[in-house]
Amino acid sequence: MANHAVTDNSDSDFAHFCLDFFSITAYLNDSAIRLIDANQ
After folding, report:
1. pTM for this structure?
2. Would you say residue 26 has pLDDT above 90?
3. Which pLDDT band holds residue 18 (cuts at 50, 70, 90)?
4. Residue 19 and which of 11, 26, 29, 34 are 20 to 30 A apart at CA?
5. Which DSSP category does 16 fall into?
6. Are residues 4 and 27 in contact, defined by beta-carbon separation less than 8 angstroms?
7. Is 12 helix (H, G, I), strand (E, B) or coil?
8. CA-CA distances (angstroms) from residue 3 to 13, 31, 33?
9. Helix (H, G, I), strand (E, B) or coil at 15
10. How far apart are CA 14 and CA 30, in angstroms?
11. What is the DSSP string of 1-40?
């Protein structure tokens, strides 16, 4: 997971946070789908 340095550009930090959040969420969703498929 990316470790973003704190800067004065809060908009950029927020955008990076959103990108990280969505990528993590997508990864977890993908993992959950695989687990559900494996248990069928």
Report:
1. 0.53
2. yes
3. confident
4. 34
5. H
6. no
7. helix
8. 11, 22, 27
9. helix
10. 24
11. ---PPP-S-HHHHHHHHHHHHHHHHHHHHHHHHHHHHHH-
